[in-house]
């Protein structure tokens, strides 16, 4: 994005003659001509860690690397959002253990029906003990499961947007709606 790298020193993209590896340097010191070939200045809009040389010889951003980096950030945020689900009965843990516990209780309610004592006492994500009737627990459990599905649905849409992006700016603009 324009202005993204303002104030950085002038950088040069070099290619190792033997391996083809790229290096972005602030000067030519230590990078002798026999080993390194000077490609040209790094454009201001290209982050040094995403620099690549296109087939036509121009220096550009590696969009596949940018996509991978953005998707990793989206997944990290997805995992954060999948820790706790807000429900009408208070916040519930919905990490892997929390989901397993919720599904286990739902199964017990189905199999045992009235054999499950009320109130169902459940430690919520805020460390408060919630007291639920069978129906209340089923309702908050379904809300928690709906939260999980909604988080995944948004992350899949963001992944599609990342993959459809055709520029570094478009890739970097993909973000969670409420972030």
From TrEMBL:
Pfam hit, one: DUF4376
Matches recorded under InterPro entries: DUF4376
Residue span(s) of domain DUF4376: 65-169
Protein name listed in UniProt: DUF4376 domain-containing protein
Organism from which the protein derives: Sphingomonas changnyeongensis
Lineage of producing organism: Bacteria, Pseudomonadati, Pseudomonadota, Alphaproteobacteria, Sphingomonadales
